[in-house]
């Protein structure tokens, strides 16, 4: 897959932004970036779009900024000159698509039917936008069309929210979803950037299913692990469960029978997709201990981060 599309796939969700005033570009970019989403699609529906792309691209060079609702080749030129790294259009205009291809510009045009998909494939595209998604049958429609066209992938937009994005992303043919719920026009207009950052963090948590699974405590030996587990179980009525290398109490605390990774122990963070979460975190500069990777049926189910936090190793585990 193209490098830009690969980067989009790591974020899983692309905020689709309408900016009426370019002064909002920098604080919005900061809110998205701080919230963990270093990408945005700025729609070309307003006079402020071009300058907003320029400002956001210049102030946040590590963000992946694209231009949406692009309808003409002239808009393509303006968007790219302003710093847009990819183009998104509501429909498939062969002239605009071919123009982007000839200039080596990534474009994701909108389609809603098999005829549009065949046009996209004829033009050599890898990913198309399915828009408006919910109004055109949603995930069931995408699955029905994906069958005859196994090489094409989709970026649905329109009606996607925190309530259904998980369902969409569970389908392997979807690289990412466009969404507006964390960047509603009313929030931007009222300058509620802290709220946007909060909603962005919640979106990441929802997309990857991040949750605390358990805390592992390093013990010197099996005797200490047993004694610690017994104490916790006796005090709080937790169920004790012994394994080969550790002893759990109610799945929330794991006492290691011998010191393992982490000076004090480890913290396990669950995710719906270990490999996807790993790619996302790598895009934020996180590094991983590749020797710690664990697989089941060729699927990555656990991996440790290189960095410890307050003496605890951190690892991702499959929910």
The name of the CATH superfamily of the largest domain reads Aldolase class I
Q: What is the CATH first-level class name of the largest domain?
A: Alpha Beta
The run of helices and strands is HEHEHEHEHEHEHEHEHHEHEEEEHEEE
CATH topology of the largest domain: TIM Barrel
Q: What is the approximate shape?
A: elongated
**Strand segment tally:** 16
Question: How many distinct domains?
Answer: 2
Rg from C-alpha positions?
A: 23 Å
Biggest sheet strand line-up: 7-6-5-4-3-2-1-8
> With helices defined by DSSP (H or I, 4 residues minimum), what is the helix count?
12
Helix/strand class: alpha/beta
Classify the helix fraction into a percent range: 25-40%
How far apart are the first and last residues' alpha carbons, in Å?
27 Å
Per DSSP, what share of the residues sits in E-state strands of 2 or more residues? 25-35%
Largest sheet: 8 strands, parallel
Mean pLDDT: 96
CATH architecture of the largest domain: Alpha-Beta Barrel
The parts where pLDDT drops under 50 for at least 5 residues are: none
Pfam family, one: Aldolase
Enzyme class: lyase
Keywords: Carbohydrate metabolism, Lyase, Schiff base
Catalytic activity: 2-dehydro-3-deoxy-6-phospho-D-gluconate = D-glyceraldehyde 3-phosphate + pyruvate
